[in-house]
Specification:
about 25% strand, seven-stranded antiparallel β-sheet
């Protein structure tokens, strides 16, 4: 059962602490939450211009200490939603005492300024059928109780950063595999074009009855050097991370041999 306005008023001393309650912010079934400051570089600023797509965390003026028979749910305000702000927050469990830190994202195409004392969201209070055996303040692993200053990921930092690092490594591996595929495709295309070019050059020479072996050898060697350089450039630009040093040395030796043969023929 969700508390209505008169019940919120009756129980406000149980729910809110530090004189942050004001009856005028009580709605039919909720209470308006207001900006105390915006988290920026681990500090708090009084105003902030939120760019399109940008996400920030805000600290509320209100500090709660949830009674053992209530659950707090964060809801968006219609006016803020229409403005283009998406506001999200966790559920606040029985026994949870803290300032509220809400995630605010600008999903509009324009910049939006948020500042101290702005109404940003609302909180609903849901009455439980009975009191839990262990409330939030009694949990030994409760990371976000009494959060006076923004704690970020708190004890979850190492765990989540490891997961993010794993995702980053997986993304890099995928990029490398894609580059490897592109390199193989381009190399195969290069080989096909090279073979086709060699065949066409020789076929043209035969049709034109050019049977000068020196000339044919010169053309083929020159084309072979150009093609080899082209294929090497493809591999170097697209798949440079996987180049084998021995293979690269053999490639350079091959180019040099072709150049020597060309010089000898000429």
């Amino acid at each position: 059962m969700i508390l209505v306005d008169k019940k919120i008023k009756e129980r406000h001393t149980e729910i809110f602490s530090d004189n942050c309650y004001d009856e005028k912010y009580v709605n039919a079934v909720s209470y308006d939450l207001h900006v105390s400051g915006i988290v920026e570089n681990d500090g708090i600023v009084k105003s902030y211009v939120l760019r399109p797509g940008e996400i920030v965390f805000i600290k509320t003026v209100e500090k709660i200490h949830m009674p053992k028979d209530l659950l707090g749910r964060i809801g968006e305000k219609n006016s803020r939603m229409r403005q283009g702000l998406c506001v999200a927050g966790p559920h606040y469990y029985p026994g949870h005492e803290t300032y509220l830190y809400l995630r605010v994202q600008n999903i509009s195409a324009s910049s939006i300024k948020i500042k101290e004392k702005d109404a940003i969201a609302q909180i609903f209070f849901e009455e439980l059928c009975e009191i839990p055996e262990e409330t939030y303040d009694q949990q030994t692993d409760a990371s976000f109780n009494n959060e006076e200053e923004y704690l970020g990921l708190a004890k979850y930092k190492d765990e989540y950063e490891e997961r993010m690092e794993n995702l980053k490594d997986a993304s890099q591996n995928l990029d490398e595999k894609i580059n490897h595929i592109y390199a193989n495709i381009l190399t195969l295309m290069g080989i096909f074009v090279s073979v086709f070019s060699l065949i066409m050059v020789n076929f043209t020479n035969i049709n034109q009855k050019i049977i000068d072996r020196k000339y044919i050898a010169t053309v083929n060697l020159s084309l072979g050097i150009v093609i080899s350089l082209f294929l090497g450039l493809i591999v170097l630009l697209v798949n440079h991370k996987e180049i084998n040093k021995k293979a690269f040395i053999l490639y350079i030796v091959g180019i040099v041999l072709l150049a020597v043969l060309l010089a000898f023929v000429i």
